[in-house]
Amino acid sequence: MIDDIRFEGSAPLQQQLYQQLSARILHQRFPPGSRLPASRLLAADLGISRNTVNAVYDQLKAEGFLQSRAGKGIFVHEDINHRRLFEQQADTSPIASAALPPLPDPRLGAPAGTLRADGKACLPFSPGLPDLEAFPIRAWNRVLHHQESRLALRGYGDFQGYRPLRQAIASYLRSSRGLRCGEHQVIITNGAQQGLSLIADVFLQPGDRVLSENPGYRGARYALERHGSTLIPVPLKQQVLDVEALTRLGPAKLLYCTPTHQYPMGGILDISQRMALVQWAMRNQTWIIEDDYDSEFHFYNKPFAAIQGMFDNAPVLYVGSFSKTLLPGLRVGYLVVPEALVEAFVWHKRISGGETPLLSQATIAEFMDSGQFSRHLRRMRQLYRDKWSHFQARVTEHLSGLVTPVAESAGMHLVLEGAFDDAEVSSKLRNLGYGSTPLSAHFIGTASRQGLVMGFASANAAQIDGCVEALASVLSAGQGRA
Ligand SMILES: Cc1ncc(COP(=O)(O)O)c(C=O)c1O
């Protein structure tokens, strides 16, 4: 009679067994006076511990469902009053008697289509995804193993971030990106995404105006409009933020941009444009959010130094991430902010997620200090340069006349522009196992350009060939024509 007891889901076994046995008694599948298996047998049959069965039997005895008969075993209570038990059950069951409390307004939740619900976040060609297989996992594991037994990493950490990691980042940013900063200005975040959300927390009130590159990075847009601010699109000119257009757009509290590799169009803001941007920001009392998400990967020239370091006291909030340089799964990024704002940022970090895991931070710090981070970057730069060339060659070979590649020699993705329904084509590629995103999805309001954002870094040579051929056949069959 217990053959059909099944355990499913995450509820504790004890709770599940209690519910199933009591339901069978209530519905008289186990009639009064019937004998239940000994706890040892039931435990063995169900593959659970005898203690669990005993605890359930004890509870059912205490509630009057079961009784023990000395030397004979456990029985369903002879005098069980089913009506009373049913009533009791109905009275005490919150599901049966009470309506759910009101749900919050769903419009305050995620915009439609933004959750990664299909389990396909890491397909080849997913923008922003590094080559996961090329990651030096053995070297990393050695460092991780070295750190993982340290007592100092087992407790709570500093909300601002593990100091040796902040020191390593500050020194790396000063020498590689030209930042003017000390470790006291660095805040470790759970990815760049948390950095952007913290900027919104510290700076924005409902109704504030925020300027944002258009097309631009959606994660920034979502973070910066979440406190009810108004997002004003800033157009691009030759694939970079149109600095001259800023004067027509009025005042704003923040301006979000990706000056060293515009996301997604790939343009690089030159030195004179950078200077004009900082001068505009000073004049207009606007803070620039400089998202420096992948500037490590410039293939032929050294990237321009970050805007943050161009002037003393430039009004810049610098956002960085280890998602491209190491792994997105680490969820570690960083902010560099003016000293006077550190406390406010750390407070908001504390109340929205708390510390970043100490072991990951300590492992990254040792990886950087030992020189392995720089070595890894050099290898990845070479690898992505080869993939970039290979991808471009295949595009020229198979997609001429169908798409126009928009490509600086940098980064981990490029855009293939064209006159087709990019959402439809992207979804077709997705069904074939390739994870591009439609260019139109990166616009605020109506999209003026169509195309595909192709993250080539995560694809191997065979996948690059396969995807280009698949795209050629989708486009030349006229599927997805706009
Ligand atoms: C423009 C831009 N900024 C930041 C990020 C990094 O985000 P995170 O560090 O949260 O993974 C990405 C990732 O794709 C990006 O494309």
TrEMBL record:
What's the superkingdom here? Bacteria
Q: Which InterPro entries match?
A: Aminotransferase_I/II_large, HTH_trans_reg/aminotransferase, PyrdxlP-dep_Trfase, PyrdxlP-dep_Trfase_major, Tscrpt_reg_HTH_GntR, WH-like_DNA-bd_sf, WH_DNA-bd_sf
Q: What is this protein's name?
A: GntR family transcriptional regulator / MocR family aminotransferase
Q: Does this UniProt record's set of keywords contain GTP-binding?
A: no
Keywords assigned:
Aminotransferase, DNA-binding, Pyridoxal phosphate, Transcription, Transcription regulation, Transferase
Any Pfam family hit: Aminotran_1_2
Record's family?
Answer: In the C-terminal section; belongs to the class-I pyridoxal-phosphate-dependent aminotransferase family.
Occurrences of domain HTH gntR-type (ranges): 11-79
| Transcription found in the keyword field | yes
Q: Which organism is it from?
A: Marinobacter zhejiangensis
Q: Name one GO molecular function term.
A: pyridoxal phosphate binding
